[in-house]
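Sequence and structure are kept together here, with a separate record for every protein. An example record follows, reproduced without changes.
>
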Amino acid sequence: MNLGSLQRLALIAVLCVAPTSSLRAQADPPPATAPAQTPAQRAWSAAEQTMQRGPRTIELLGQASLALPEGYGYIAPQQASALMEAMGNSVGESFLGLVVPLDKESDWMATLDYEPAGYIKDDDARHWKADELLDQLKQGTEADNERRAKLGIPALEVTHWIEQPAYDTATQRLVWSIELRDKDAAAGADPTVNYNTYLLGREGYVSLDLVTSESHIEAEKPIAKSLLAAVAFKDGKRYADFNSSTDKIAEYGLAALIGGIAVKKLGLLAMAGVLFAKFFKIIAIAVVAGGAALRKLFSARKA
């Protein structure tokens, strides 16, 4: 029961015991109102109310679909974008929403995107060198720190592979992961980990990136891989459906999904990872203090 309901019940109780003459002499009291929600609370409330819970199929722009398993929720782009903004992050046009766990203990999230880059040739996967790719990520992240400083965002550094790039030529699935550290983080801080997964298609690719911490990544790798396995392109949109005479070929190869174009997104998701658990705790406290009738997003259940 929220604070507004308690106030209304208390008012009814007073009216029931008050003398009739006193009631006539007094003006009607103003109706009780619940405390106004903050933008962050409204974002969580909208996400909880509109969340689609598994098992169900989530359509992805007519290109692909996600077979959302039981125990997971999908937040559509409009509500998910509001959540990301409330956490201090922005999203681009490729953003398709968030996948979140429905249990109380988990605090990861996964961003879902579709990039219509065209057909990405994957032959460079045979020749790439993990050490060189890691150096590219380190250098790109360091160069991007100047932009972060102007935005008031902490400087980041790439430290090491959590999982070296692995590409399956049979399924056109790519997986890789690094550790990101805030340069100003306190000693003993739990670094952010981006676990990046991709599925290539005829006209572009789907990326599903799980954002978590280093202390949890080993337990959550299977989650990211199972979600990636649940994404499938539709007939006619699959990688094998490519027509060299009519289809657009991407301006970059597979290695770019690990190197150059990945750098800015790494910084975005690093901030999301740092703030995600803290943000949820702040909202939970605000709900209790304000008496608002919000349920915890991840523990909401139907009777």
